[in-house]
Amino acid sequence: MKQLTHPIYEIVSQVADEVGIKAYAVGGVVRDLLMNRMSKDIDIVVVGSGIAFAKAVASAISPHIEVSVFKSFGTARFRFMDTEIEFVGARRESYSADSRKPAVEDGTLQDDLNRRDFTVNALAIPLNGPDKGQLIDCFGGVDDISHKLIRTPLDPDITFSDDPLRMMRAVRFASQLSFDIVPETFAAIQRNAHRLEIISQERIVEEFNKILLSPHPSRGINLLKDAALLQYFLPELLELQGVETINGRAHKDNYLHTLEVVDTIAWQTTNVWLIWAALLHDIAKPITKRYDEKVGWTFHSHEFVGSKMVGKIFKRLKMPANEKLKYVQKLVLMHLRPIALVEDIVTDSAVRRLLFDAGDDIDDLMLLCNADITSKNPEKRRRYALNFEKVQQKLVEIEEKDRLRNFQPPVDGIEIMEVLGIGPSREIGIIKTTIKDAILDGTIANDHDEAFQLMLVEAAKLGLKPVK
């Protein structure tokens, strides 16, 4: 079979022989080796103290390596040659019904493999001793890799009831690796879906983000829906499902549309927050949906209502309430703006205002907007594509000419107050707005002298004069 090549393995082998214990590479690193995938981290299991062994290995490499110790989990890790190396002692686990935190005791390698989540992760390679380099596969993990299957090593009901986060991980691996979850394992997820309620929102989101970053997020999201997991953390997405018809007029299925947009965005970026914006861009459509006899189905202000919903969803899921939240809210709020330009005559003024409002997020907004065009009408898609090119070209031209990305007025409030000899007031706001609008409308250039002259004109209209 293929060989483990990272330098850490030979060091581990030598130290394990010196201290007289058995060491194994286990789990994902073995799976990835068999699948010709790069591993971002390496897990080492020893029959003994993982913490003590980690310190011994680190010391053998360099006295300057810092070892992070997690006593409650019996694990330790350090970074070596751009790889995270984690060490743990072989163990057996038992769980209580109201927690995914197990009671842990020392065990054998077999005990350790028994507790693994899936057969494809229950693989081990001895790093020392007479069987060094010989694959250990107790549960048919190699066959499951070759057939692209996800299944649990032991009874799936016990596996998922013990640690419900494994249900999210099953979907995540299926989405990341393009594997199928075997029917008996998937049925067990459905039976145990309610157990997800004992998992922290942070851990759920951590797995969900990995699904969003997989090659086809829609695959994972649909599995979450079919497994009845999605309803426990993002029920708003389920509300997008379905098509309603009145008088022969139907709207599109906004759930399927959303997944198409998410997939399109995920193929173009690894920015998970942009993918979140794609996921939530139409989240308010069920709330804002109305039927009008003249125009059919409408979703007025769904972008505004949706941006408010983003904040509530982030708070509930304990996601960051910082610039990431503001970024997603902004893209959801603005996702119709470029579309409106595509549908209308593209004016310099409209493009300037789009640049001004979007700032550095304009490129991401345009990606989202382009992905949002999912019409199955070839002529409509062709027309949108041509007009979209015009908008993008205008953005480039105006950005080069007017420098409006993250625009700051050439005459600010402080200068206006100094020139007119007044403090903060309604008049200052009026003058600043007039200057900004004049620049965005193209009436004056984004230039200090022209803005200063306009300030004097507007001040005179308000009965204000420069101080001498």
List keywords for this structure.
two-stranded antiparallel ribbon, 468 residues, seven-stranded mixed beta sheet, alpha+beta
Low-confidence stretches: none
Q: Kindly provide the radius of gyration, computed on alpha-carbon positions and rounded to a whole number of angstroms.
A: 29 Å
Provide the β-strand percentage band. 5-15%
Mean pLDDT: 89
* Total beta strands: 15
The rounded distance between the terminal residues' Cα atoms is 87 Å
* Largest sheet: spatial strand order: 3-4-5-2-1-8-9
Percentage of residues assigned to helices: 40-55%
Largest sheet, in brief, is: 7 strands, mixed
Shape: elongated
Structural class given helices, strands, pairing?
alpha+beta
Count of DSSP H/I helices: 23
3D architecture notes:
This protein is α+β, with helices and mostly antiparallel strands. Helices cover 52% and strands 12% of the residues. It contains 23 helices and 15 strands. It has a seven-stranded mixed sheet. Helix 7 packs antiparallel against helix 10. It starts with 7 loop residues before the first helix and ends in a 7-residue tail after the last helix.
